[in-house]
Amino acid sequence: MTESLTRVAAIQMNSRGEVAPNLARADDLLREAARRGARLAVLPENFALMGAHETDKLGVVEADGAGNGHTPIQDSLAESARRHGLWIAAGTIPLASPEADRVYSALCVYDDTGRRVARYNKIHLFDVGLPDSKEAYRESATFMPGDNAPVVIDTPVGRLGLSICYDLRFPELYRQLSAAGAEVIVAPSAFTYTTGTAHWHILTRARAIENLATVIAPNQAGHHASGRRTYGHSLICDAWGQITSEARSDANEVVVADIDRERAARIRDGFPCLTHRRLG
Q1: Quick one: how far is CA 151 from the chain centroid?
Q2: pLDDT digits (tens, 9 = 90+) for 103-141
């Protein structure tokens, strides 16, 4: 691998209704990502728990910060990052909010020493009824929205922007991430099968194309304890919007791709649409 290439991984999971087995499974998949040469691995939304009921997350909520013996999800992630020498964008974790009956859906990033270097709380909550279906969701019943400040950090794969699942439908967030210098954007997700079939590939590719940024989008896959079915097709898009790697099963799976940062820089230089904006 040349110096301009950096390998990343999108980790697809079929998470179940108990935290401990999900954490063990996530660690196995992170180990596989590191073995295959990834510098950064991204877990899907709700990787630690896809419960039978939306309120199940309230029973496993953690205070912010690892290392006190009462934060098994955060402790496990920090240890996995250290043990595998891997940067981890850790899907979402239920972290305490000011309201006892709601939690933050937090995307935390750990460096390869296990130190947490960033946190982003999901700002767009999935309160929808699906067309021509009885399927409906109301995340705001158990999630507290974060503020709208974009989070972009420096990593070995470049400037990294953070987003989560339903955020993909709000391009203004990605414009803010791009304006803050994001070269790579993560979008850990748990897209339903219905919405994924219709929009998953379109949305992930569009966000990459619009912002000339690599998008790493791991997804939940298959059936879960609640009866919900998620779409899978975890993928990585390059800065030209081409899918360079994609999961093809409903199972736990690691997909990897090499980011060519020099090629991405040439694309942004030669096709400078971000500098041509006249509105906003």
Answers
A1: 13
A2: 999 999 999 999 999 999 999 999 999 998 888 999 999
Beta strands per DSSP E along 91-227? 93-96, 103-110, 116-121, 127-129, 136-138, 143-144, 152-155, 158-162, 184-186, 214-217, 221-223
- Is 135 in the active site? no
Q: What's the mean per-residue pLDDT of the chain?
A: 95
| Residue 122 annotated in active site | yes
Is 3 assigned a catalytic role?
A: no
Active-site pick, 45, 62, 246, 253: 45
pLDDT at 70 exceeding the cut of 90: no
Mind listing the pLDDT tens digit for each residue in 134-175? 889 999 999 999 997 899 999 999 999 999 999 999 999 999
| Domain ranges (residues) in the chain | 5-275
Query: Per the residue annotation, which of 62, 108, 122, 253 is the catalytic one?
Result: 122
DSSP strand pairing (143-144 vs 253-260) = unpaired
Query: Domain 5-275: which topology?
Result: Nitrilase/N-carbamoyl-D-aminoacid amidohydrolase (3.60.110)
Q: Spot the catalytic one: 32, 57, 139, 165.
A: 165
